[in-house]
# Entry
Amino acid sequence: MKKKFLIYIALLGVVLFSCQDLSLEPKGMLGEPELFGNEYGVKKYFAGLYNYLPIEDFLYYGSDSEHAYRPDNFWEAGKKSQGNMSGEFFNQWLGVDNDGFAYWPYDRIRDVNTFIENFPAYRDKYTDVDYNKLMGEAHFLRAFFYFGLAKRYGGVPLVKEVQNPLADADSLKVSRATEYDTWKFIYSDLTFAIDNMTDAMESGRANKYAAAALLSRTMLYAGSNAKYSQYLGFENEAATQAGLAGMNPSHANEFFQYCVDAGKIVEQGPYSLYTAGYPDKASNFAKLFLDPNSSESILIKDYDQTVPHNTRLRHSYDALMCPQPDMSSFVGAQSYPPLDFMELYDMPAYTNPDGTPVRFDNRSDIRNGMEPRMLGTMYFDGDELRGKTFSIQKGIYRNFDGLATDIQRGSNAAPINSDGNRILGGRGWTTEIDGVTYNITGAHGHFDDQGAENNCWGAAFIRKYVNTNMATSDVREYRSDQHWVVFRLGEVYLNTAEALYELGKRNEAFDYIEMIRDRAGCQEVRPAIDMTMTNIGTINEANYPYQIEKSLQFIRDERERELYAENHWWWDLRRWRTADQVLNQFRHRVLSCYYVADEGKYIYLDEDNRWNREWTASKQCYYEPIPWGEIGKNENLLPQNPLY
# Structure
């Protein structure tokens, strides 16, 4: 940043020399004294850095290493973020090429280092409290950038000072630190931030508790990496032998304890689980993500409705999540929750013990018995949005006399099954059965017209983060301005619970789980601790730790329930080292609703996803490759990460 400014001044000086008195000062320029010499200037300087933090929110697109966001490309920014970064919303299946997401933010780290190195020259302009607060905030920002690197690559170069671009080339080629030292550097930066920042709260800016929340998240990630990477079979890889990709499992408890300690610091702050007195717990959970004054939010990322279209200060979340007709003026919903996630929650049975489908008098009866948190996370038939009621039906069966498993599998391409018993169609299509005319689908049902959008590919839509107050005409690309919750107390409780359990403190761990589940309105608030073993994934390798205690798996599942659609799941699978097991030829399932004409009843069936799409994560996913373009400039980044 400083270098760019000085170059700009030099060029400006050439112009001024030819036509102006050199004593004149350039107008409208902010140099280091103007930026670092007062808190308003520092705030402006930091604002640019916050804008580039690897916060995986509505617009995040991981492969754009220069900007990390693609506000000019709605389709990539909107859909790839939910498909690749989260994995929780299933729509487009987009692979990762050999160069990974190529996240390499050392230009931003240089900007932070410039501040840390030069800010002491302005110390006399600040009180001790304000000076320390700003210096602590700089360390928070640097730690956040390094977290984005560490969780992708393991050990990375630790550049702590501003490098001189005119220095000897070899001195600029910084080698990778070990993975352990990289995580300890993040720990050091964040403990410095916590010790120096204050508890002052300002929307969009971190305080000491936000630094502690980031420490909670990062140290849980590091502890899991240390404990479970030993089972990946990378011991003969050069990067693993050098300590660059993998850590000694003896370090796991060190990091888990750091996570617990950070959580305790957050608990000292003015935060509480969100219970704002809404009429029911489902509405309460949904409002948590829309209330800018939520008692649970520790740090939020703001967006701004007043700015012009197609800027990074707006996003398109509502346009992606809300269906036509009448809940969106855009193309319609692009994502939906798979049955695999829905079944993690308390929900009513849709299959009888004898294998036959449960008969429902109304489609919306599927909502009865669902835990409120599920209803606050997803929209189902009978729910309302923008004055319209969801009507989600996939098709009709003339009759259904068999088991729930007696259904067609695979593609849903044919409008009518070969036997003519199941009838599918598009919006507004009707069919006549025994002289009675029926609508084949609901207004928001699964339309079988070879790739149409604007419909539901299952029995639910996403509710979390959807802005219910938007006018339908505004539900378009780059019209949404609701904030993103970067850190909230619910996540910190879950981090603490998992770390405590890993440390063998099971009862204390479930104290936190109980608080989460009580707020969620679960049927069973505190399950009994079960230390018997359960399997993970497909168990396709003999050396894999495919069995864990059932209560630890319960805590992991609780994360999926509470944090669904918040872009944690993919990273959780990576740090647990279970992605290649859970996502081994993984075909997500959908819950589909049909009307059974000869009974006048509705049934819900467990079906294949549209086109039977499959996701397989290989072991390459645990460490992304160091970008080859960077290796071309700095051979000290070798050896490359495992399997590349």
In short: The two ends are 34 Å apart (CA to CA). Residues 128-153 form the longest helix (26 residues). DSSP finds 21 helices and 14 strands in the chain.
